[in-house]
Input
Amino acid sequence: MTENISIQKTGPVLRFAPSPTGMLHIGGARTALFNWLYARHTGGTFLLRIEDTDRERSTPEAVDAILNGMRWMGLDWDGDAVFQFARAARHREVAQKMLADGKAYRCYATADELTAMREEQKAKGLPMRYDGRWRDRDPAQAPPGAPYVVRLKSPQTGETIVHDLVVGDVRFANDQLDDMVLLRSDGTPTYMLAVVVDDADMGVSHVIRGADHLNNAARQIQIIAAMGASIPAYGHLPLINGPDGAKLSKRHGALAVEAYRDMGYLPETMRNYLLRLGWSHGDDETISTEDAIKWFNFEAIGKSPARMDYKKLDNLNGHYIRITPDETLVGEVAAFLERQTPPRILSMAARTRLAAAMPSLKERAKTLVQLATGADFLYTDGKRDLDASAARLLDGPGRARLAAALPALEATDWSGPALEEAARAHAEKTGLKLGDVAQPLRAALTGTATSPPLFEMLALLGREESLIRLRAYAD
RNA sequence: GCGCCCUUCGUCUAUCGGUUAGGACUCAGGAUUUUCAUUCCUGCAAGAGGGGUUCGACUCCCCUAGGGCGCACCA
Output
């Protein structure tokens, strides 16, 4: 048998099996997460298999994107990723065995012939299914040398039951299921065959995947039965819909997980959010990965499809930003800035300022993007460009108030408390509210109308740098 | 068309026959505050519809409606 799939396995064996025809999107990420969580919860094994049998659509770039997405999500798999296409010979071998055992047969029907058959069925209002025309026919009747596919000789009566961990028993009448193709006319295996053979060879005990595969489960069970292998436990996860309830599309958020990274979401946010989308643990909302591993089970998986809610994602991300250590956040912001085009590299001085301001900064950011942009005034020295609302603050009486307040500030030792004290005293003396004095100062110092606490920032930037910025707008 | 799955506040969900149907997000209002946030408090808001079963249904069964998935020599 194949050598690259024999790794030491313990406990339940789970797997995530994406096809590399695109990015790792949010639905796939959740499927991977649930598999990973259960494997880690039980001390089992989590395998990764790349289903690249569709040679037309599979690309190495997509493989990389999926692997990177998994790594970013923090979902580590056991052993090396298995590439399905590399196992085609084994799939063929299994099909040949089924042929020899009379569990499968050769079908010489041409593509045109089958199309015609379906059209006829459609016209008569019949279900569109392969009619088994070669099932019991003597292969000797086939035109010599004609191409053929190998089909499963599936049971025509009775029913196939999928015992699903999420939705319970699902019954399919066998007469609804036709004889599916196992091997194409070019000898390559179909998805149905490949999955089943690989799962069996890899010792997969639990197949946890999207609900779009629920129908496939019945067909796959039939192949497994024909192979004489044992049937794994199945669990089909309800799909994720867009905010409007319709199928998740690119427009909605069927985005690569890397897109979420670029929008400034933390991996722990994604894990928590995706976990709660379809799984619950009483009233718990913020669930650490540690607790998730401790608590995860199949019983609490919901049956109905869920929708993406970006407001909730933002809220959760804000929470995780707040509880992330400052040093970590500084690194994240620096990395984020470097990913920009053109890349922005923070100077050591800017990094130091960022670190000092982080406790106040992180309280007002929902994403890393907001965190990075909210700290913009810390990155470079000198006079600020004003945004619209800052310009308004320095438009009317603001400038005069700024100029009037300067001497009082200059007389301090430029510590946060002393600056605040001086500003308060000045405001009181001139009959102004503190805000009237503080806002123009903030505008000149940061170029914006909102920022972390003003006096803290003045102290952080230091007397010299602060005065350069303030004087630039005091005339 | 055929088959399968799903259905509690706008959204994510709790409830596993007996609750004033709970929590979270959003939204509205308030407290704190130099701005914005954070934090805290208050409020708005739900069992798709119709039949059963039962002393009693959100919970069990059936029908309808709505939504989703599948029906390839794609995965």
User: Anything to note?
Assistant: The mean pLDDT of chain A is 92. DSSP finds 18 helices and twelve strands in chain A. Residues 149 and 184 of chain A are 5 Å apart (CA to CA).
